[in-house]
Amino acid sequence: MRVDVLTIFPGIFESPLRESLLGRAVRSGILDVRVHDIRDFATDRHRQVDDEPYGGGPGMVMKPEPIFAAVESLGAGERRLIVLSPSGRRLDQALVRELASERWLVLICGRYEGIDERVVEGLPAEELSIGDYVLSGGELPALVVLEAVARLVPGVIGKEESHERDSFGEGGLLDHPHYTRPSEFRGLRVPEVLLSGNHAEVERWRREAAIEKTRRNRPDLLE
Ligand code: SAM
Q1: Which helix (H) or strand (E) holds 73?
Q2: 145 lines ligand 1 (CB under 6 A)
Q3: pLDDT tens figures, 45-80
Q4: In the prediction, which pLDDT does 170 show?
Q5: Threshold 0.85, pTM exceeds
Q6: How much distance in Å is there from the Cα of 217 to the middle of ligand 1?
Q7: Which entry of 37, 113, 147, 212 is annotated as an active-site residue?
Q8: Which CATH number fits domain 2-150: 3.40.1280.10, 3.40.50.150, 3.40.630.30, 3.40.1260.10?
Q9: Of 97, 151, 165, 218, which one is the catalytic site residue?
Q10: Cα dist. 66→43, 89, 100, 138 in Å?
Q11: Can you give the residue ranges of every domain in the chain?
Q12: CATH class of 167-222
């Protein structure tokens, strides 16, 4: 899968794209992530990417021309253009699955008061939010999207980290609780059934524990 990221802070992506799951996916070539500095597409000598808002008010707004130029420089092809924005469609695992089936994503990161609305209207692009809160930039949201999507791209995670039983999967439940050695820690014991070696019993316990955890932490998912 190809992912182009447009940002005015390309350095933010260096370490996350080098380490762990994303790093492996990039090194193996399964993910082809290209980070572009929007400033490189500004045409004035100050490489200006923002300006004052029409109508007045505080803060600055990201200008449309460098973003259009950056997108146009990527070449033609079927791609999904996404602007990270708190006012976008909220990311969930269903949307992550949808994005993971695409071959090419373009993630556009805003800063300041946001991006000139003509970017969404004119490219056109869809707006995507990672949750009902406001961050200072679209870079962390873009990394959230990237990592969530990468987990579902075939070959990115191995069997030992399988995502099949993850929360929000087919059954719509949260994941069941997990335990590892030691079997007793500070008086807290691992549920006996998990030490029994009885796979059918373990499966039954996991299903019930997943339902119980969902009921406790996210009853809305059971409705
Ligand atoms: N004035 C905007 C508003 O109230 O909706 C907030 C702009 S925010 C300070 C700057 C940038 O951060 C946005 O353009 C967007 O790219 C990014 N951003 C902030 N919160 C986000 C969220 N929850 N999801 C996705 N992107 C977000």
Answers
A1: helix 64-73
A2: no
A3: 999 999 999 999 999 999 999 999 999 999 999 999
A4: 83
A5: yes
A6: 27
A7: 113
A8: 3.40.1280.10
A9: 151
A10: 8, 24, 28, 16
A11: 2-150, 167-222
A12: mainly alpha
